[in-house]
Every structure is written in C-alpha cells, then in structure tokens.
Amino acid sequence: MDATTILNTVVTGVVGLFGAVAGYLGATKAAQRQINANKTQLAYEYAKEKELRKAQEKEIAAVKALIAELKENQYLCSITEFYPPMSTDIWSNLKGNILIFSASTQLAVLKAYHTIKTYNGVREESIYTAQSPMIKATEVLSIHPDHDASQKNLKMLRTLVYQSCIEADQELTKYLASFTS
After folding, report:
1. Biggest CA pair distance of the chain
2. How does DSSP assign the chain, residue by residue?
C-alpha cells in the first residue's frame, strides 16, 4: 500500500464520517421538528377537546334547566285552587335556540312552550278583562262575564300544558341520555 492509497482511504473515511455525522444531525433535526409538530398538534387537539367538553357541559346544564322548568310547570298544572302563570324563564334565556336537538325533541319542546304561552296569554286576558291584576284567577273568573268559557279554556289549556310538558321532558331526557352512551 502506498501513501496515496492510504491518503485516499483516510480522506474517503473522513468524508464518509462527515457525511454520516451530517446525516445523523439532519435526521435528528428532522425528528425534533416532527416531535415539535406533534406537540403542537396535540396541544391544539387538547384545547379543541377541552373547548368541546365545556360547550357540552354548558349544553347539558341548559337542557337540565329546561327539564327542571318543564317539571315546575307540570307541578303548577296540579294546582287547582287558582291558575298560576307558567314559567318560561329558561326558555327565554335559551332564546329558542333548539337546533341542537333532534326534530322530534324540537317539536316536543316547541309544542310545550307554545301551549304554555297560550295558557299564559288566556290567563292574562282573563285577569286584565277583570281590570284587577291582583285578583286570584278563581275570583277573576267569577267576575269575568265569560266565566264558564274562560274557566273551561284554562282547564283545557292546563291539561294540554301538563301533557306537552311530559312529552318534552321525555324527549329532553332521551337527549341527555345520548351524552352518557
């Protein structure tokens, strides 16, 4: 072996070593970029999941509040001494935003609150017709010239409110069950 061959072999070995080191550094740098990209993607996915979970919890709380209001109205329907106004506070807070529900749930909730609004309207009309909003509904109806018609309407509407509240309650309960399954 002469000096040129040895020198050629050493130079080739050094160049090969530099190539290997450069390849290793390039691969390490690429792997680090991939790890950073994965970390960024995971952080994004985590934030997205956290936001989705918060929105879902808010939605569940709203549905539970709606169910509670419907149950309250069912109870108010059982009061026979007078005709109390039915509650629509939660419905008003939701601003009627029910597109998240299935079509059957939307229909049941709309029917319940439409019936409640009709009942409350007839009740208010009876009170204002008697010119005294402080009088109990039973007293108003005894003063009101259309006593029998108003009382029958309110009784019928109270029954409809009760039934529609039960239907909406059942639909919303099914909707809530979909979150746990």
Report:
1. 129
2. --HHHHHHHHHHHHHHHHHHHHHHHHHHHHHHHHHHHHHHHHHHHHHHHHHHHHHHHHHHHHHHHHHHHHHHHHHHHT--SS-PPPP-HHHHHHTT--TTS-HHHHHHHHHHHHHHHHHHHHHHHHHHHTT-TTS-HHHHHHHSTTHHHHHHHHHHHHHHHHHHHHHHHHHHHHHHHHHH-
* Domain assignments of the chain as residue spans, ordered by start: 55-180
- Cα torsion 52, 178, 89, 116 to 10°: value is 150
Give 150's pLDDT tier (boundaries 50, 70, 90). low
pTM, full prediction: 0.68
CB 145 within 8 A of CB 134: no
Q: Does 145 score more than 70 pLDDT?
A: no
Mean pLDDT within 46-57: 91
Structure token digits, residue 11: 């130079």
Looking at residue 128, its pLDDT comes to: 62
